[in-house]
Amino acid sequence: MNKKAVVSVAVVVAIIAALPVLGDNYLMRLGTMFGMYATLALSWNIIGGYAGYPSFATAAFFGLGAYTGALLQGAGVPMPLAWVAACASAALFAALLGLAILHLKGHYFAIASLIVGEVLVEVATSWRSLTGGGMGLNLPVLRMGVEAQSRLFFWSMYTLGVLALLMNWLVARSRLGFGLNCIRQNEDASAMVGINTKRYKVMAFTCSAVLVGGAGAMYASWVYYIEPPDVFDVLTSVKPIVMALLGGAGTVLGPAIGAGVFLVMEEVVWRNFLDVHSAILGILIVALIFLLPNGLLGLAIRRRKAAIVARLPTLAKRRKA
Amino acid sequence: MSDLLTLEGVSRRFGGLLAVDNVDLSVGRGEIVGLIGPNGAGKTTLVNVITGVYRPSAGTITYDGRRIDGMKTFRISRMGVARTFQTVQPFPAMTARENVMAPATFAGKSQGIAEARERAEEALEFVGLGDARDALASELTLAGRKRLELAKSLAMEPKVLLLDEVNAGLNSTEIDEALDLIRKVADSGVTIIIIEHLMKVVMSLCSRIVVLHHGGKIAEGTPDEVRNDRSVIEAYLGNRYASRSAGEASDG
Questions:
Q1: Which of A13, A164, A228, B49 has the fewest CB within 10 Å, making it most exposed?
Q2: Is the Cβ pair A175, B105 closer than 8 Å?
């Protein structure tokens, strides 16, 4: 990304941050959802987009973060500290889980990562003494006005989304990002050119979990009540993948754009077709991904690639001469 | 002169199949050693064992005075053991330059992206791909991708280079160019172990040839010695031909 792009992204980020000025509660709720969706999609992008490992573990990290935050807040830990602890627990969990399942590839990895969330649902449901089981957990109510609360959660969630964007940008520019790019394209050759593939994959998996754990905890604080099927919902794993693919997986901005587009579609469809909204949303998503295999950002990138291909014939001729 | 790479009693078993059987091999600094043998003789497996893709089931491998058997592939690469794959293994969605920057960044001694880029361009220039540096790897010709493999290996600044059939699938002009290139690499001081089916290549390049058959070493020597070795002729052309050619040799 060049300087101009960075500046324009910074401007857009600042404009969205000023959303509370409008004072519309519905927009604030959407803004908070956007921050959360962007966090999830951008986080997934590190393991799924850069490293090419189709992780369905997002719900597991999200739920784990939600329960960590809820339990700590219940025990009297200040809310911000509980959020940080949720990030840490999700990151630690991802690192250990990664060591166990990142040798699996493709579908096998996808299934293994999907099962993790299901296992955690069972744990959260059965461990009644700690989690309240199927009854769920109530969180302490904040002593502040409704508007102040909606501002607080919007800015918190949005900050998390911006951090996720920053993380993507840093990873993309680092050795880690370069290495993950290699791993996605050819893992055997990556080891041969000196990349510690296992370590890089575990790092990517951890990056893909840390902020998701925080988002889970913020969500719990935001809605005051969590239960296993809600925070470990498999859709929490699926939606970020759709968003990332929609915007452009493996790009810095793509997943954030995808999160915005997805949110708008979800709201519009849900409001107008209440009965069949998931069916229509599903068809829309399939159509978009089918028509834009490289995502919305892919449109721009494909044009650049076409220019390179056009230069090739001359290269071939020169070599023969 | 101490040997750069020494294999002692190296075996690799896959279930009931002994793919590499008790192979001893030592390669001196600056040597070009040919590794030949019929299909399925265990040549590529041996390369995979040396580079840490497979652990040896038995035996020891010493490189530059250090045991490397059981080490991870990326560590062995970083110590200066480079290899090209029999089937080319580029990063298809990256340009040629980015492909070569990967080993320069992760296995070479480059500090930072700028230096890795410079090293990559040198390597591409060396193999004659300087003009194609911005082309995607997936869009190069087969000969181009083979050169790219070589450039990737060279960007690691290796001490020993294992070339696994770099010439397979090339036409005779391309092979001659590749031969010049390999000589140029050898002249720069890199030790080379080359797996090859084309006798023309092996005979003209190598000072020493090792022959594998059914995983075991059946002969070793100069090109001439190996060419007239009875067990080698038997392995390639069968028992009857071997005795006939032995008869001719004693007649003549």
A1: A13
A2: yes
Q: What confidence tens digit (pLDDT) does each residue in A60-69 have?
A: 999 999 999 9
Side-by-side strand order, sheet with B191-195 = B81-84, B160-164, B191-195, B32-36, B208-213, B216-221
CB spacing of A179 vs B106 below 8 angstroms: yes
Q: Please report whether residue A222 resides in a domain.
A: yes
β partners of residue B18: B13
CATH classification number, B1-80+158-169+189-252, choose in 1.10.275.10, 3.40.50.410, 3.40.50.300, 3.90.1300.10: 3.40.50.300
Whether the predicted model's global pTM rises above the 0.90 cut:
no
CA separation for the pair A274, A188 (Å, rounded): 48
B212 in Cβ contact with B203 (< 8 Å): no
Cβ-based neighbours of A54, under 8 Å, separated by 6 or more: A48, A106, A109, A110, A113, A241
| Domain segments of chain B as ranges | 1-80+158-169+189-252, 84-157
A2/A45 Cα distance (integer angstroms): 21
Question: What's the pLDDT tens digit per position in B173-216?
Answer: 888 888 899 999 999 999 999 998 888 888 889 999 999 999 99
Count of structural domains, chain A: 1
Residue A299 included in any domain: no
Read off the pLDDT of residues B51-83 as tens digits, 9 standing for 90 and up: 999 999 999 999 999 999 999 999 999 999 999
Which is it for strands B3-14 and B58-63: parallel, antiparallel or unpaired?
antiparallel
Report how far residue A53's alpha carbon sits from residue A71's, in angstroms, rounded to the nearest whole number.
31
Strand partners, B219: B211
B130 to chain A: which residues are within 8 Å by CB? none
Please, which residues bridge with residue B95 across strands? B136
Q: Could you tell me which chain B residue has the CA closest to the CA of A180?
A: B102
DSSP A143: S
- A146-173 vs A3-17: helix crossing angle, rounded to 10: 170
Q: Do A191 and B77 touch (CB under 8 A)?
A: yes
Q: Chain A interface residues facing chain B, Cβ-Cβ under 8 Å?
A: 175, 178-179, 181-182, 185-186, 188-197, 305, 308-309, 311-312, 315-316, 318-319
Q: From the candidates B49, B101, B106, B140, which should be mutated to test the interface with A, based on the most A CB atoms within 10 A?
A: B106
Q: What separation in angstroms does the CA of A61 have from each of A112, A117, A124, B228?
A: 14, 8, 13, 67
Residue span of the structural domain in which A89 resides:
3-234
CA distance B136 to B94: 5
Contacts 24+ apart (CB under 8 A), B121-126: B121/B97, B123/B151, B123/B152, B123/B154, B123/B155, B124/B96, B124/B97, B124/B100, B124/B151, B126/B151, B126/B154, B126/B184
